[in-house]
Every structure is written in C-alpha cells, then in structure tokens.
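User: Batch of two.

Assistant: Item 1 of 2:
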Amino acid sequence: MGALAITVIVAAGLVIGLGVQYLTKPASQLEWLIVAVTTGVGAYAGSEWLTANVFSTMVGGPEFDGLIIIPAIIAGLVVGLLGDMLTRYVAFEPTSA
C-alpha cells in the first residue's frame, strides 16, 4: 500500500470522526479521535488482512494505490462503529455537583 492510500485512509478517518463529533451528541470530548483511529485501523485491516486471508480468491475489484476499496470501506465503517459504541458505553464525563 502506497503513501497516497494511507493518506486517504487517515483523511477519511478524520472526516468520519469529526462528523460523529459534530453531528451527534458525543459522550466525550475526544470521541472523534477514537472514532477516527478505529476507522483508520479498520480500513487498513480490511484492505490488507481481509483481502489477503478471508477473501483471497477475490481478484480484481476497485483498487487505489494498493488500497482495495470495498473491503476497506466496509471494515472501516464496522470497526469505527464498534469504537463509537464502546466509547459511548465506557466514557464517563465528570458531572458538576
């Protein structure tokens, strides 16, 4: 995977993370960062690990600089959603008394 593909993954993770922060009611001030990181890790794993191990018979398909797009999108969104759900479940903001 090339540097341009990694840049796309990081940018997409940041856009999704900031979208979650500003379009929903966040449970924490750093929820966007957790969502961005988990989305990026999921997209990378989806492109590299899922395609190499689980879908090894999948030949062709849309690809960008070594990034296989469809598994990266699906895995990134699923892992990002899991990261968001875990953050909302675990994060406790201090309440003012």
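Item 2 of 2:
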Amino acid sequence: MHDDKQTASDGVAPSKKRLGRRGFLATTAAVVGSSAVTGGVNAAPYGGSAHPVPGRIEAENYDTGGQNWSYYDTSSGNTGGAYRSGDVDIETCSEGGYNVGWIEAGEWLTYTMNVESAGTYQVDLRVASGGGGGTVNVESDQTVLSTVDVPGTGGWQTWTTVSTTVELDSGQHVLGISTDTGGFNLNWIEFSSAGGGGGGGGSGTDPYPNLDGNSWNQTWSDEFDSGVDTGTWSYDIGNGQASGLDGWGNNELQSYQQDNVWTENSRLVIEARDETVSDQYGTYDYTSGKIKTQDKRLKQFGRIDVRAKLPRAGGVWPAIWMLGNDIDEATWPDCGEIDIMENFGNDWTTSHSTIHGPGYSGGGGISASYSGPDFTAGFHDYQLTWYQDTIKFWVDGNLVNTITADDVGSNTWAFNDDFYMILNVAIGGTLGATPTPSDYPARMEVDHVRYYDWA
C-alpha cells in the first residue's frame, strides 16, 4: 500500500479527495503539456496504452499504480491468486479469461481510456453475484455519470449484463468503477455508441430519414422488448440433416438449439457455445442459435435496417440474411439469397454483403465488403434498400454496393418475390475458420430489426 508521502515527478505530494459519498478515491489532476490527465499520478494504463472507447475493457486490466492510486480493495492480497499480483481479487472466469471477484462496498478500480468521439455511449457491465448484488457507479475523471443496480444472479459465476448510458467527451479520461453496496463479480465493461456517428436510434426513430435519397415510413419493427415473438420468429434446430443439408450445406460444426436464443435488456441474444450435444444424426462440439421469419413476416422491396453487435470468437460466422419464401432452403439458390451482413475469417473489421441466385451462387455470388470499425466492439446498422431491379447494401448509412438486374446477365434476377429474414451465428464451415474453444461463449446481440416502405 502506497503511503501519503509518495510524491509526483515534480516533487509535490499529490493531494487526495473522496468524491462525496462515493468510493472512488483519486488524486487531483496532473497537467502534462496542455492536456489534463486525471486520476492517481502514479497510475498508468495497463499494457501501456489507453483502452479505446468504443470497445470492451476486461475488468482485470485496471491501471497500474497499486492501492489508493489505481484501485482500492478492502481485503489484503489477491484471494483468487490469478493473473496479477496486488490486493485486487482476480480469479479464472467461467466465461473464459479472468474476472475481478468479490467486489465489496467502498472498493474501486480505474482504467485509462481514450474516447474516440464525444457522444452518448451505452455501457454494458458483465456481472455475477452469489452475494445479493449491489450498486456500481460508472465514473469519468472523478465524476459519477451513472449508478447501476446489480442483481443477485444466484452464483458468483452466473453471469448477466446490466446496462446504462453515459455522455463522454472525446480524448483521454480515467474511467472509475466504484461501488456503494456489494458484493458481486465483474468480468468486463463495454462501451458502444448509443447515437451519433455510429448510427442507430431509439424505438420508432429513424437516424437515416433520407437514406438513398428517399423518404421512408417504418412499417414494422421488432425491438425485442418482450422476448422472442414466436408469432414472428421460428427456430431452426440441429445441424441441418433434417432439412437434407448436412452441416447446413456449408460443413458447419454447430447444432442450433432454442436455448441459445433469448432476449435481454431489450436485445436479442444469439450465443455460440463450446458444448457437446447429440441427436439422432450425430454429436456436435458446439451449439448456437438461428431464428427466421419464414411464412410469418415477409418483405418485398423497400428498406431493411438491422442494428447489431457481432460476436468475437475464433471460427464464428454471424449472418443477417434473407431467402425467398416461395422455395424452401433445400432448393437453393433458385429461391434467391440476400446476405445483408456476414462476418467471417476472424476478421472483425470487415462486413460482407452478397446476393446469390441461379447461375451466381456460392463463390460466384455478387459481393462487396465494407471495412473500418471493429464490428464486435459496438453496435452498427446493416441496411438494405431494395427495388424491383436494384439492390443496395449499406453500413451505418454508408453505401457498400449497388447491384442491378443487368449484373446477373442472362441469369434470372431472383429478387422480385417475398423474402424472409434469418439471424444466426454459425461456427466453422467453409467460411467460419477453425474455432478457438477458449473464446466461447460468444454473443451476437441485435438491438432491432426494422422494415420500411417509401413514403
């Protein structure tokens, strides 16, 4: 434990202050050049670089500096005995990696973060509690931005996600995670754009009212506020053999299970897991989820927006896509396929958009890619504008590709019928790469699916 006589590099002892009744003990700002850097003067980013926001911060990667500078822990020593030395309790996590354990009232951690741009951010905290839960404060530069309730989850490794929104200024800041009541465990903190440059918006709002130069009327949406609506969605189960598609036609490794799909915090969750299941056709080392609107909620022409955050795990192949409803999947590609978004090959910064039809399927599909952000670090809008002889793909309002009926030549343009939506996370297969078991479980989260027609 550092004592109060330790001095900053200029020889002046740093003063300390407690933030009202909160547990976040920190020093006053130290000015470096023209930039104010808040937090303990002896603290520094773990690993040498500030955590990027938007993005995920692992709880165990708190700043260096020690007790009273980058953390305050009421118990002596690392009770979990894992990952780092010091007085912060760290243990192996059931979800992979490590978590900070047994957070009690008055304890706190700091993380130097670099905020890409000013705006509203959603903060997700992955928590577990066998001790009744508590409250956690999200702070920036010693100011409490939000206080979140942590429920009792029934076990110290029984995880759930709690969320809030905060306003952040751009640049480098010190994130504080403190608690007034507790205990609970913390696995990670994740920031994603809740508006502005990342696109998106709340229920009923359209952040792209003139997309593709048109005016749009929203005709339907699923905001996932009330569970998975079985009047809209059906589940695919298994590895495809029951449909005559072993490995779903792509040598995929997962068996789809209904239990891998649910709603949480007004979002759809599709979770890929490293777990073994068997059915009458075989045994599978992975499970995941797939839902579709076949014969229930169909769309022909207009605009579709799907706002989602993609999973990050070796071998995953998440997809947001559509098939023609008049011909079942087993007779593909005559039914036509529209891939609004696919992410594969362990390349988290590239989204692929493709059409498939008779004479232009598989490797011959007409495709384009959009690269830039880490699609696993936050939510992004994957969009389609669809006309009788033209399909356009968009990401966050940015045009990815325009495909017309002329582009398929003498082949049939297979996109003038009703189509249904599919959301799934495959594992392995022809595009999914070799899975990394320690990366699982991994989630695709969908904030909403919205259909529009021309105004």
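The helical segments are 429-432.
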